[in-house]
Design the sequence.
């Protein structure tokens, strides 16, 4: 990217509207609304003191939780992680799947809220955060996600499984004990359908996979043997990061346990860099994968990745109205800052 | 809606997935995640004490603001409202419009960030909120929006104008002095294109306008001669409200000043009910209208409305990943609660 400024930034100094060819979304990059990218710090950092107490997710409190699906290691009271049912599930596993109760007179379209909603307790200890775990332990959490997806795939009615993590109250977490969630849905959700359509269009036009193509020097943060971390070219949020497998692969659940450890190492690095640079911000991560069911085969245009979003800005009226986002930090600048963070 | 429960709620007791046929969005309604709808209260109410100080938007501080576009009444130091340029505009009015700087080698699509970004100062007095104004004064604010849209329409490059308001820090407001914003965009934003497409599909299938059809007894809050307030059937957010003109009309900017006063009255009522019932929550409102330019004519399927969203819940990993939303409050229940709020 050429620049007319004398700063060490490689990013332009007038606003740009960039197209995210993976999500089919326009994002406004606005230098007038930016502080220097190195000044971005969370105003609501995670307070480690909050994390002293005991909760239902702590070891020894299993009886306060909804039923367990599996634990690692199995049948061991001294577990390292547990996958359990969500006590307040958004969807119900106990009602008929996708029965349409469409009232055609009124034009109202309704489907039964069938689905699965699980919680992954990532550590037995209340004060431990995901980034405190070793690469091997983070790998075990990721393998628990893939194992649960494979179980859920056996239900014909499940079309998509969303794995996500909320960390910190302003990123939506109601429980501070380190956990992630797994929701299995009877429909392909709109953002996934849009993403698949957009990646297919890119492939039809260029013969290339849009996610493979996101790898570029100015956007790179770190690399390992089979994965890279980048700031995407049209990042929706300031300091949004993606971890992408270098080998083209459509489905997250096909990750093997050896690569899961490597991915765990790169995720740990990204989380530690984010925490050091941005003042331990609340964050979300989302696995962006491909639909299941009939569409579960390898697709040339669809490539899974992990999306990590620190919670630094508020989505407000403009974004709610238009679906366009305003990002004050150019991705090249964010990538440079993150590349250079020293992790001891 | 039939109900098997013995409560006075008309809403069902198992989760439902409803389709919003205006926004083409699936929303999960989850009774397991709900408190009683009458228990919903903001945890971060707007603090009226915050509103004591002086700021650049206050009368007498005009020199601290970016240039004025117009004021009401004109040329009067004792103004009632001002429309000014945004000091930190997300888009720039000083660069060429929509020049594509697409680098086809890299597959990266970029457009110049041309556009207009204005602020409407809704009152000269720091401590006055929009809902404190009279229906006539709120009408004047709405007329200022329409007048500015008509000015912006004269630029051929402007395809859509988004009017929105952020009120309260957790709804994104960085200024507490009552204001709204107007952003004029060189592209039709994705959520608008999706909404138009969805309304057109509904019209092609049923011969009816999906917004006209949203009017139903169980979802109604209040009515005036030419407007209704409702909770939409597939509300994305708890206690989301729409104000809809009863006469089918595509463009907000065609609102006349007499109807603006009536709309001001209904908006005031909705805001006061929201404030009383939900503990003066932060909120956003968005004008949902139709594109300009070539498409500025009256469309049989497109119908403008005002969307009002109290800030009660956090958008987290699931919503970011899927574009599906979880709403713990059934719209019939929210409408009933809001219908019954007594405003003195
Ligand atoms: N004893 C117990 N046994 C089993 N499960 C238990 C439990 N106690 C609590 N839980 C469940 O544990 C989960 C913890 O999840 P998070 O803290 O990540 O966010 P939550 O789902 O509450 O909402 C956030 O994420 C969702 C989805 O993105 C958003 O809709 C919402 O606004 C945001 O706050 C909750 O879903 C809760 O129901
Ligand atoms: N002296 C002055 N003269 C003229 N203008 C002045 C000014 N001082 C401040 N301003 C402008 O006034 C506006 C006030 O707007 P709001 O408080 O509604 O939210 P803001 O745009 O900051 O961001 C919120 O809304 C946007 C859009 O939805 C989100 O991207 C963002 O995250 C959220 O916090 C700001 O845009 C600011 O630039």
Sequence:
């Amino acid at each position: 990217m050429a620049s007319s400024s004398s700063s060490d930034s490689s990013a332009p100094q007038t606003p740009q509207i960039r197209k995210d060819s993976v999500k089919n979304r326009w994002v406004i990059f606005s230098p007038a609304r930016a502080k220097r990218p190195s000044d971005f710090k969370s105003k609501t950092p995670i307070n480690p003191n909050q994390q002293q107490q005991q909760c239902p997710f702590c070891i020894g409190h299993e009886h306060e939780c909804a039923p367990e699906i599996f634990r690692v290691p199995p049948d061991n009271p001294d577990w390292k992680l547990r996958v359990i049912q969500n006590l307040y599930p958004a969807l119900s596993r106990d009602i008929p799947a996708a029965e349409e109760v469409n009232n055609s007179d009124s034009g109202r379209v309704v489907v039964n809220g069938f689905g699965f909603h699980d919680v992954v307790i990532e550590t037995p200890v209340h004060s431990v955060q995901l980034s405190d775990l070793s690469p091997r332990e983070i790998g075990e959490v990721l393998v628990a996600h893939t194992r649960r997806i494979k179980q859920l795939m056996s239900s014909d009615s499940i079309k998509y499984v969303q794995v996500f993590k909320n960390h910190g109250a302003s990123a939506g977490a109601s429980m501070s004990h380190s956990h992630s969630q797994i929701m299995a849905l009877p429909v392909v959700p709109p953002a996934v359908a849009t993403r698949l359509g957009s990646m297919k269009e890119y492939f039809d036009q260029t013969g290339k996979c849009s996610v493979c193509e996101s790898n570029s020097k100015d956007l790179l943060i770190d690399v390992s043997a089979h994965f890279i971390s980048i700031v995407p070219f049209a990042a929706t949020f300031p300091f949004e990061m993606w971890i992408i497998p270098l080998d083209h692969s459509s489905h997250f659940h096909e990750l093997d346990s050896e690569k899961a450890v490597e991915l765990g190492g790169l995720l740990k690095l990204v989380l530690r860099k984010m925490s050091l640079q941005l003042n331990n911000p609340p964050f979300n991560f989302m696995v962006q994968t491909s639909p299941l069911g009939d569409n579960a085969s390898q697709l040339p245009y669809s490539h899974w990745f992990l999306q990590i979003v620190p919670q630094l800005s508020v989505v407000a009226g403009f974004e709610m109205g238009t679906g366009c986002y305003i990002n004050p930090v150019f991705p090249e600048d964010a990538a440079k800052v993150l590349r250079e963070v020293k992790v001891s």
In short: The domain at 16-98+106-340 of chain B is CATH 3.30.428.10 (HIT family, subunit A).
